[in-house]
Design goal:
By secondary structure, the chain is α+β, with helices and mostly antiparallel strands. The chain has one helix and two strands. The N and C termini lie far apart (27 Å).
């Protein structure tokens, strides 16, 4: 839901985590991939918060 506007990928991850905090969710894993911050080499970032099952 952030693909239309230019936004820092770290801000996008934090916003996604904040949106899930409003609901009754115990844990969340957010993964974003591609040419992050306009770099030529693509990479993936993953952030986990809370409790997650194996």
């Amino acid at each position: 839901f952030f693909s239309r506007s230019i936004i820092s990928f770290r801000k996008a991850i934090k916003k996604a985590i904040e949106l899930t905090k409003k609901t009754d969710i115990k844990g969340v894993k957010v993964k974003i991939a591609g040419r992050l911050a306009g770099k030529e080499i693509a990479r993936a970032e993953c952030i986990k918060k809370g409790r997650l099952p194996l």
